[in-house]
Specification:
2 domains, L-Aspartase-like, histidine ammonia-lyase activity, 506 residues, three-stranded antiparallel beta sheet, EC 4.3.1.3, Fumarase C, Chain B, domain 1, Fumarase C, Chain A, domain 2, mainly alpha, lyase, two-stranded parallel ribbon
């Protein structure tokens, strides 16, 4: 059971909740803070104080005063009017993450909701009722208004949910689990939808996939080095220590570990003096991606425990301040940065694929074909990789540099962070398939060289991979192999490639 406090949620706990079915509960001391904040909201309504979002309209309507008897209608209208997302739904895992993150933010005690709201959010998590939330429609400032409104609809017994592997009306799932719909009162609708939880949820899941892929890319690259009889001198520790980037040093160290005792690698001058950059510069390029991932992880750790509501209530209601914590710029930049970094892993991987299949660049069978000419071998696999990296180049145009004014120019600068997070998720998916293609080609090349000459760790990787994609003895429908390898490398535990001490830490 993961206990949410509003301040201490970490990646390890998110992994447990999202991928291992761990349940969640609210910390008692945090609920006490929530109650005090709620008392402040009720006092504001009772005394008819003029406070944004509690006794006024929203956005450009912030100057419109709302009568005491209309606060419930105001909140319901807010959710209904803002639930206008379009496009395909976020994956269930993202929806689940949004529930957890929204509950955690409310538990900070700055938002003025009743504990009932948090209880309901956590009940949806624990009973695996996941709101159907369209991916498109958020500007990433005023928070993820449209996506979070679709989440809030479910608390009202409206909208749709994923429940027991089906998409059903929310009221059906709530009825099955004996959960009563609630009526939102003052501030609660606004508190549910002012936040960055869509972009952050997508960002967390993308980060976890990116981190795993970055590790897998190194064992795959090491296998490619063997397939091309690569030069190990470029991975000498002193070279990387001389530059000073710790991530670069660590990548080189892992490559040396993977290739220890290999009989397929060479020394400079033995076959050639230098390798191409796609082999020689693996530590520099992959290390730079790791630098980016560390930056992204730091920002996500902050955001998953951040108060992103507006207004925020401090000192038991003595101070209620309208600000802009809902603005997604920190996550927008981080998501764009991560997309660029992961696209580079794919770019250098595709160049290694080319070196594996191009007979002008190696002494292997052309296109790794068992019968060159009669059979095409891996020729079109390289085409596919080239197509994917080209697509990534368009997806990594930064979303965060764009802004379109909204709400009659009241909200005149927005982050587009949710677009950035969605694009980055697609970049990571594309990069995973490029690396799957490299894995197929590198195993084929290494096996041509002689499986018995491989390093123990890369040979273990190859033998495990051969249970997924067999040796290419003749042309076949390779799309099945690519998809099988893609799914496999996404699921390989980090510990299976020798990273026992480098799993995700909070």
């Amino acid at each position: 059971m993961v206990t949410l406090t509003g301040h201490s949620l970490n990646f390890t706990e998110m992994k447990q909740v999202l991928f291992e079915g761990e349940k969640v509960k609210a910390a008692k001391e945090s609920i006490e803070d929530v109650k005090k904040s709620r008392e402040a909201v009720e006092s504001i309504v009772e005394n008819q104080e003029i406070i944004y979002g509690i006794t006024t309209g929203f956005g450009k309507f912030s100057d419109v005063l709302i009568q005491k008897g209309d606060v419930e209608v105001l909140q319901k209208n807010l959710i209904h009017s803002h639930a206008c997302g379009v496009g395909e739904a976020f994956p269930e895992t993202v929806s689940r993450a949004m529930l957890v993150l929204r509950a955690n933010a409310l538990l900070k005690g700055y938002s003025g909701v009743r504990p009932l709201i948090i209880d309901r959010l956590l009940e949806l998590v624990n009973k695996q009722i996941h709101p159907v939330i369209p991916q498109q429609g958020s500007l990433g400032a005023s928070g993820d208004l449209a996506p979070l409104s679709h989440l809030a609809l479910v608390l009202l017994g409206e909208g749709e949910v994923f429940y027991k592997e089906e998409k059903v009306p929310a009221i059906h799932a709530l009825t099955q689990e004996k959960i009563k719909p609630i009526t939102l009162t003052a501030k609660e609708g606004l508190a549910l939808i002012n936040g960055t939880q869509a972009m952050t949820a997508m960002g967390i899941i993308s980060y976890l996939e990116a981190e795993n892929l970055a590790y897998q890319s190194e064992i795959i690259a090491a296998t490619t080095i063997e397939g091309l009889c690569g030069i190990m001198d470029a991975f000498d520790e002193e070279i990387h220590m001389a530059r000073g980037y710790q991530e670069q040093v660590e990548v080189a160290e892992r490559i040396r570990k993977y290739l220890k005792d290999s009989q397929l690698t060479t020394k400079q001058g033995e076959l050639r003096v230098q390798d191409a950059y796609s082999l020689r510069c693996i530590p520099q390029v992959h290390g730079a991606t790791w630098q980016t991932l560390h930056y992204v992880k730091e920002k996500l750790k902050i955001e998953m425990n951040a108060a992103t509501d507006n207004p925020l209530i401090f000192n038991n209601g003595e101070k209620v301040i309208s600000g802009g914590n809902f603005h997604g710029q920190p996550i927008a930049l981080a998501m764009d940065f991560m997309g660029i970094a992961m696209a580079e892993l794919a770019n250098i991987s595709e160049r290694r694929i080319e070196r594996l299949v191009n007979p002008q660049l190696n002494d292997l069978p052309p296109f790794l074909s068992p019968e060159p000419g009669l059979q095409s071998g891996a020729m079109i696999m390289q085409y596919v990789a080239a197509s994917l990296v080209s697509e990534n180049k368009t997806l990594t145009h930064p979303a965060s540099v764009d802004s379109i004014p909204s709400s009659a120019n009241q909200e005149d600068h927005v982050s587009m962070g949710t677009i950035a997070s969605r694009h980055t998720a697609k970049v990571i998916e594309n990069a995973s398939r490029v690396l799957a293609i490299e894995a197929i080609c590198s195993m084929q090349a290494a096996e041509y060289r002689g499986k018995n000459k491989m390093a123990p760790m890369t040979r273990a990787f190859l033998e495990a991979g051969r249970t997924i994609v067999p040796f290419i003895e003749s042309d076949r429908m390779f799309y099945k192999d690519i998809e099988a390898m893609y799914r496999w490398i996404k699921k390989i535990p980090i510990t299976s490639v020798g990273m026992e001490n480098e799993t995700v830490h909070s």
